[in-house]
Design brief:
single chain, 482 residues, alpha/beta, seven-stranded mixed β-sheet, six-stranded mixed β-sheet, 18 helices, 45% helix, flat
Length: 482
């Protein structure tokens, strides 16, 4: 059969005149289309079309159509004039068994700049409009395919810069945090039910609900909220990376250490003091933790205006770091680096004796007592031979775990400020309820108001209710096509 043959409601799609095309666009309602793969040269580009009449829009440019659902089919893609744009694999997903919960078409064209753009233009001419950032996922939330926490997990998975962030995002996408929040919501709704029973039926044979029962249920819910909130700091570090700053005097091997840990030459290395003038940053893995490693200018007195600015930047990074790697190539240099770093921060400092492959660096004997005052431990490393680098990464991981707790792959963690704020609001409302209930001076109907507010905070967190401005801010951060 000629590949231009058409079947189905848009059989004459490639021959539509301007008026018919306009009518089809109006009838298509809000059908969206976007490229789901990055622009540029590549083997394949994926375009997605979603909406109630996505099949009609797709049928105007795709032959054969319709095709069997959920089965990739080789099709011809043509423009409104019948010109062949590409031969592509097309997959048709019927509602509600699609990512968005709507009828959805995925078109895998050849990559590059021209073919995907022309196929996109043909779909827009057939009645679709270009999707906004996050619009596919927003529709998935609206149609009950995902909740809001799972939608955020998709964005985190796309943005993941480390295995730890990937694992946390996948755990949220699987519904771990959502399940915990939903269980808390159900527990509070049960307390509301007990209060309502006591208010509406105070003289039933069973008697009033014991106040201790309500107090115990609310206290248990607050303890579960506290457990989730305790994961917030670690969760945000998993998402954003823990900041570890490499600090010390010039020419002790800071930039060489940075390059060795990153695995490639990012920092410029010379024998000239003051070469590093600005902070360089890269994300690495230290055990379970993603680490934002920052290389800074050498700490020393300087009359050079530009170098002095670089030193001030270094000092600000040290002051805000979660961990400092104070570097020196000898005992005195190491002690000076730790001393200067300690004056700027109260966070843990790991003393890193660099150039361990050289006699003046690694040839000196030391004991535990030799660890410079102010440092939690000392590690010898060589950027040239890579000796000591695993030990340094292990030391970083130990210190972060000691400060922020171990990361359990099975336990959900709070990874976003929005989560933390919503849980914090819910906890504050529970505390207010507990105080009012304990004092017993307010009628149950009044005392129950904070309880309803706590439930509302949890509902907003998972998207059971969602103010439009919250949704708008959230989905603007997504990439187009997701």
């Amino acid at each position: 059969m000629d590949d231009r043959a058409r079947t189905g409601p848009a059989a004459a799609g490639t021959q539509l005149g301007p008026l018919a095309a306009a009518i089809l666009r109006a009838a298509a309602g809000d059908v969206i289309v976007a490229r789901a793969t990055p622009p540029g040269r590549g083997a394949i580009a994926v375009l997605r079309v979603s909406g109630a009449l996505a099949g009609s829009v797709a049928g105007a440019v795709i032959a054969p159509w319709p095709i069997p659902p959920r089965r990739p089919t080789l099709c011809a893609i043509r423009d409104a004039g019948g010109g062949l744009l590409d031969r592509a694999l097309v997959t048709w997903f019927e509602a509600p068994r699609s990512y968005t919960g709507e009828p959805l078409v995925e078109i895998s064209t050849h990559g590059g700049a021209t073919v995907p753009a022309e196929v996109m233009a043909a779909l827009v001419a057939a009645g679709a409009r270009e999707a906004q950032a996050g619009e596919f996922t927003r529709r998935a939330v609206a149609n009950g395919k995902l909740d809001l926490v799972q939608a955020e997990a998709i964005a985190d998975l796309v943005d993941a810069r480390s295995p730890a962030m990937r694992r946390a995002a996948l755990a949220q996408l699987d519904g771990g945090l959502s399940a915990q929040v939903s269980a808390l919501r159900e527990a509070l709704l049960e307390v509301e039910t007990l209060l309502a029973y006591d208010i509406d039926f105070p003289e039933e044979d069973d008697g009033p609900v014991p106040r201790e029962r309500i107090s115990a249920a609310v206290a248990a819910a607050r303890e579960r909220l506290d457990a989730l909130l305790r994961t917030a700091t670690a969760g945000e570090l998993v998402r954003d990376g823990a900041v570890a700053v490499i600090a010390g005097p010039p020419n002790v091997g800071k930039s060489s250490l940075f390059n060795a840990l990153v695995g490639r030459a990012r920092a410029l290395v010379t024998e000239i003091p003051g070469t590093t003038r600005d902070a360089l940053e890269a994300v690495i893995d230290a055990g379970d933790w993603p680490v934002r490693l920052i290389d800074t200018a050498g700490l020393r007195a300087s009359d050079d205006v530009v170098e002095r600015l670089g030193i001030e930047v270094a000092e600000r990074h040290i002051a805000s770091a979660q961990l400092v790697l104070a570097c020196g190539d000898g005992r005195q240099a190491l002690a000076d680096a730790v001393r200067r770093a300690r004056a700027l921060t109260d966070r843990p400092i790991i003393a890193v004796r660099t150039k361990a492959d050289l006699a003046n660096g690694g040839g000196e004997s030391r004991s535990v007592a030799d660890v410079p005052d102010g440092a939690v431990e000392e590690v010898d490393v060589s950027a040239q031979t890579r000796a000591g680098l695993p030990a340094l990464l292990n030391a970083i991981s130990r210190r972060l775990t000691g400060d922020f707790g171990a990361l359990s792959p099975d336990a959900p963690v709070v990874t976003r400020a929005r989560h933390r704020l919503a849980l914090g609001r819910a906890r504050a409302e529970l505390v207010a309820f507990e105080e009012a209930w304990r004092e017993g001076v307010l009628p149950a109907t009044v005392a129950a108001v904070p309880l309803r507010s706590a439930v509302a905070a949890l509902e907003e967190l998972i998207g059971a209710v969602g103010p439009e401005d919250v949704l708008d801010r959230l989905f603007r951060t997504f990439c187009v096509g997701k």
